[in-house]
Design brief:
Distance between the termini: 42 Å
CATH architecture: 3-Layer(aba) Sandwich
CATH topology: Rossmann fold
Shape: globular
Structural class: alpha/beta
Oligomer: single chain
CATH class: Alpha Beta
Strand content: 15-25%
Order of helices and strands: HEHEHEHEEHEHEHH
Largest sheet: 7 strands, parallel
Number of helices: 8
Strand order of the largest sheet: 1-5-4-3-2-6-7
Number of strands: 7
Length: 220
């Protein structure tokens, strides 16, 4: 998308008045400085960016997890968009938490996807949504920011990006929690068909392949 369109989308996002934009083209270090200034524990939720097979169960798990933390001392951080795990934003706000979001500047191509329930958003200058850089062991700027800004990393399901972020968070000695969940079957099948790939054999996601083996899969 051209620069003019992104500028227009910035104006649109600001005009709706639902979010405070911390920065439009931030580095991970700049985002980290913002979070440090808040002087609160940053609890980041990771997971699928698209719909969950059982969204109600996902939201109940989020409610249970957040019930163990105080809104006075904890920020709830996600990826700024409304879909998937971003569906937990309204719940977090209803429980009294201040919410934050870290997201790639690619999100400016479609600001309708940005959740209205995010109090503060850090747009990270990035050419991809997250995960590892091509042919590299290092995280892209967005994923690097997600990890460095987080004090507690909690994932409910999740794909490759979540997997990569949790692994780095664990390497850095940060507390990591993982709870199995399935992505919406219909969407996963449709996505595979569109890409010319065979029907998925599993809907648990790539993060589950690493972290799910440590957790017994059961209904919440």
């Amino acid at each position: 998308m051209n620069i003019l369109r992104r500028l227009i989308n910035r104006i649109e996002l600001k005009s709706r008045g639902k979010n405070h934009i911390v920065g439009w083209d931030m580095t991970p270090e700049q985002a980290h400085a913002f979070f440090v200034f808040q002087m609160k524990t940053v609890l980041t939720l990771f997971g699928f960016s698209s719909e969950y097979e059982d969204e109600a169960a996902m939201l109940q798990k989020v409610r249970d997890l957040l019930s163990g933390h105080s809104p006075e001392t904890t920020l709830v951080n996600i990826g700024a968009t409304a879909g998937g795990i971003g569906g937990a934003y309204p719940l977090a706000k209803s429980m009294g938490f201040t919410t934050t979001g870290i997201v790639s500047t690619l999100a400016l191509d479609n600001v309708d996807q940005i959740s209205e329930a995010v109090d503060h958003i850090c747009f990270i200058a990035d050419k991809q949504w997250g995960g590892k850089l091509p042919n590299s062991k290092y995280l892209s700027p967005t994923s690097k920011a997600m990890v460095v800004c987080s004090d507690i990393l909690i994932a409910i399901g999740g794909g490759e990006v979540t997997r990569d972020e949790l692994l780095v968070g664990k390497e850095q000695g940060k507390p990591v929690q993982f709870y199995p969940a399935e992505v919406k079957h219909e969407l996963a099948i449709r996505s595979a068909e569109k890409a010319g790939l065979p029907k998925p054999e599993s809907f648990w996601g790539e993060a589950h392949e690493i972290f799910g083996k440590q957790v017994r899969i059961r209904a919440w």
